[in-house]
């Protein structure tokens, strides 16, 4: 949970910048997406946010807690499943839409390729950042499974695994530099396979 901070000026020239938790999370999201969790140090974070380390800890508790909030923000704003997996949409339509949106989102910014959650979840063993990301990823898989089970309960498990694998593949390919045009073609091809799995 993020607490409010009093306005704090960043040392240096220019006008003081007021601290806003949502803005801080947006900045953190950009930083963690451009470089992995361990590569973003506390000093770099506090400098970018314009706060001192004690103020950072007061607001967020720890770097890990801040990262957890960043992951939640990312999951709720990028490829928001509540919007894509709407009640009444056919699974083939909704999930193909998810694939295509993912292909475009993962490749639109050369400095932030791939999925922040999925790439962090690939982290080393039981590292704190990987565990946090896996929790978010598993919750999103559960949302997909629940959506599919409404209309195709017997296929829900297999199709969820398929969706998870496609999304992971799109993210990894984007990180490797595959172009958006190629990724979208792959996403649409993956969508065509859904009808067969759903029976």
TrEMBL record:
Residues 1-20 are annotated as: Disordered. The keyword rRNA processing does not apply. Keywords: DNA-binding, Transcription, Transcription regulation. InterPro entries: Homeodomain-like_sf, HTH_TetR, Tet_transcr_reg_TetR-rel_C_sf. Residues 30-69 form the HTH tetR-type domain. GO terms for molecular function: DNA binding. The keyword Transport does not apply. This is TetR family transcriptional regulator. It comes from Caballeronia fortuita.
């Amino acid at each position: 949970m993020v607490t409010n901070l009093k306005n704090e000026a960043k040392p240096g020239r220019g006008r003081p910048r007021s601290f806003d938790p949502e803005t801080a999370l947006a900045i953190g999201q950009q930083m963690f997406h451009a470089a992995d969790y361990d590569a973003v140090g506390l000093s770099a974070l506090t400098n970018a946010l314009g706060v001192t380390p004690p103020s950072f800890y007061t607001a967020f508790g720890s770097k890990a807690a801040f990262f957890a909030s960043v992951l939640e923000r990312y999951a709720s704003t990028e490829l928001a499943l509540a919007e894509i997996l709407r009640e009444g949409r056919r699974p083939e339509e909704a999930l193909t839409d998810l694939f295509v949106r993912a292909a475009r989102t993962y490749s639109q910014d050369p400095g932030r390729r791939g999925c922040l959650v999925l790439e962090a979840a690939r982290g080393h063993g039981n590292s704190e950042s990987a565990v946090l990301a896996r929790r978010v990823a598993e919750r999103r898989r559960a949302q997909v499974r629940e959506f599919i089970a409404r209309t195709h309960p017997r296929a829900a498990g297999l199709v969820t695994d398929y969706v998870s694998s496609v999304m992971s593949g799109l993210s990894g390919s984007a990180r490797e530099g595959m172009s958006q045009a190629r990724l979208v073609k792959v996403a649409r091809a993956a969508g065509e396979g859904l009808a067969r799995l759903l029976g």
